[in-house]
Amino acid sequence: MAAQLIGQSRAFRDVLDAISMVGTVDSTVLLLGETGTGKELIAQAIHEAGPRRHQRCVAVNCAAIPAGLIESELFGYERGAFTGAASQNGGRFQTADRGTLFLDEIGDLPLEGQPKLLRALQEGKIERLGGGGRTTSVDVRVIAATNQDLEGMVQQRTFRADLFYRLNVFPIRIPPLRERTDDIQLLVTHFVRVLAERHSKCIKEIPSSVLDALLQQSWPGNIRELQNVIERAVISTTGSALRLPELSRSSGGAPVSEWRTLAQVERDHIVATLHSANWVIGGFEGAAARLGLSRTTLISRMQRLGIAAAQTTESRDSASVVATRSNSTSASGTAPPCWGHASAG
Questions:
Q1: Which residues contact 158 (CB under 8 A, 6 or more apart)?
Q2: Is the Cβ–Cβ distance between 46 and 137 less than 8 Å?
Q3: CA-CA distance, 28 to 331, in Å (whole number)?
Q4: What is the rounded distance in angstroms from the CA atom of residue 43 to the CA atom of residue 101?
Q5: With respect to CATH, is domain 10-175 assigned 3.40.50.300?
Q6: Is it true that the peptide bond before 337 is cis, omega within 30 degrees of 0?
Q7: Is the entire prediction scored with pTM above 0.85?
Q8: What is the fold of 178-338?
Q9: Is 54 exposed, middle or buried (0-12, 13-18, 19+ CB in 10 A)?
Q10: Pairing relation of β-strands 125-126 and 136-137?
């Protein structure tokens, strides 16, 4: 099924134009954007627009793999390379051979794993763990993504400059939702249709007051946060018109008479989420996972915003990218005759 990209704003049309340009060639692409902007969906669209579309697109979340397992996960291992290695494993590069490898959260790749990735990109060869120096050729197109400032990390020597320049062949900036307000109605309509069907709800109308309230939010969590809010709304709706639960300050908005800066909104949202997670940063129920961030990214933002971390407990998180797929969308706030009714097919 082809990836369905939803949006008609000028900012998003620029992204679509970039996909059209780079999709048909075999160049390395670097997707830059805040968390929750749909970078994996964009990567899938680039893959499907190119000559490798009939092959696999393998996604790897670099932030979710422990540092000690990066090499074996990406490049594979030979039988007997370590305890438990009962058979040979080709790794993600070999799995994606002749296709596309999507390296999400590339900024979280440990420094010790970066030289081998650089070699794989430059030479098209991988060396399995325990391989004794033997190499295997692979033909892989790489699309990488990050919500971090890689150039700043290069200056701080936390990311290799040669790897950055190798990845930064064709950068595409994915705009945050606050720069795509013209797309919010389209996205809301799409999410209501999909989620109403998932939860067996019959929702016929999205009131204008609901859309107005959503348009006033700053959405620090971007499309992922919008999707979560719409899912809560769909679940709590008992009639045929979508009912929007009260949006707290922590979900990104304030009354029009109380304008705040984006940094203030972001800080309040992070603090509220930390409180709800009992100041646990990592783990499946930690604040980082709830915010859709990697543990290291959340810690960095806390430091930048002056949020004390003395009360926090760290553990490894498992981040993911939400990618939405659809065959069709509607620009209307209503959908005849019924969204998501169990008998509607």
A1: 111
A2: no
A3: 34
A4: 9
A5: yes
A6: yes
A7: no
A8: Helicase, Ruva Protein; domain 3 (1.10.8)
A9: exposed
A10: antiparallel
CA proximity to 329, closest of 225, 193, 201 = 193
The answer to whether the CB of 256 falls within 8 A of the CB of 216 is: yes
**Strand ranges, E, within the chain:** 29-32, 57-61, 100-104, 125-126, 136-137, 141-146, 170-173, 203-205, 334-339
Q: CA 221 to CA 307: how far, in whole Å? A: 18
In DSSP notation, 146-170 reads ESS-HHHHHHTTSS-HHHHHHHTTE
Domain ranges, ordered by start, for the chain:
10-175, 178-338
Whether 18 contacts 172, CB under 8 Å? yes
pLDDT, tens digit only, all 345 positions of the chain: 456 899 999 999 999 999 999 999 999 999 999 999 999 999 999 999 999 999 999 999 998 888 778 888 898 877 655 656 556 677 899 999 999 999 999 999 989 889 989 999 999 988 877 666 778 899 999 999 999 999 999 999 999 999 999 999 999 999 999 999 999 999 999 999 999 999 999 999 999 999 999 998 999 999 999 999 999 999 999 989 999 987 755 444 443 334 456 677 788 888 888 877 778 888 877 888 888 888 888 888 887 787 875 443 333 333 222 333 333 333 344 444 565 543 333
Query: How far is the C-alpha of 318 from the C-alpha of 283, rounded, in Å?
Result: 7
For residues 119 and 102, the answer to whether their CB atoms sit within 8 Å is no
